[in-house]
Amino acid sequence: MASANAQPADAATQQPDTAGRPSDPPASGDRPAASDAAKGHGGQGGERLDQAHDVWHIRVRELHKRFGDNHVLEDINFDIARGKVNVVIGASGAGKSVLVKHFMCLLRPDAGSVWVDGTDIFALSTKDLAQFRRKFGMVFQFAALFDSLTVEENCAFPLREHTKKGKGEIRDIVRDRLAALGLDGTQEKFPGELSGGMRKRVGLARALVLEPEILIYDEPTTGLDPLATQNVDDMILAASERYRVTSVVISHDMASVFRIADRIAMLHDRRILMAGTQDEVRQSDIEYVRRFITTSGVSAVEARKNFRDQRTT
To answer: pTM here?
Structure first.
């Protein structure tokens, strides 16, 4: 997620540095005018938002959203890194879920644009949007499984609704996704027979059956104990590595954030306060960012190092 401070710079002009990560953003004065962003012009170097980018998968420009008198999002500018685990953090009620719902056009903004692989999603017809949403998989906060369906039936549901695959092929796909998440053998169980962490994994398996390019996780560790939380974190990383998806995680669980995030964006006071790598966020001199991390009681370096070390042993 490209940096976008209190007066956000244009992340569209960023290019990857020699380490394969985005370089520092240009000065805020280089940001394109709203009319340019709406037309897909990205700014310097002739880059356009209406062309797929090697580094950035989702690109948000000058996004505003109100609900009546409540101005939730204001002039949001930032990018989601392709193939990485991108985490959006912020206090409860900051608007994280509202922001991410725009990525799939579940909400439409009052102004601004969201570009996914060079496509302005808000310009799509209803028919084209339905097809375009196949790029996305959603893992809901409380798994959102059908209690009356078995694990296999829950995971098969999207395939039956959106494809013409036969029963045998559907069964094989479901078993493959469940096995990849350590759930083979649970096919005939009902959600009520599973632990909270297992239900989260079934929710991910269901999201993966349609082979999405982008996975969105809405508060995936809410309500879980520390060990179950770590299992979910491991699940997110494993899915990212195995399926090479772009992951967008909404969270305010800082221990979890620092275990999994490649990039972090903080939403505060309607704007993206800052965005960058773990080190950039941890070393930020922005007072609110420092307080948010410090009061969580989490050591960013140790949380990430210990967790990654455990996964490789």
So the answer is: 0.78
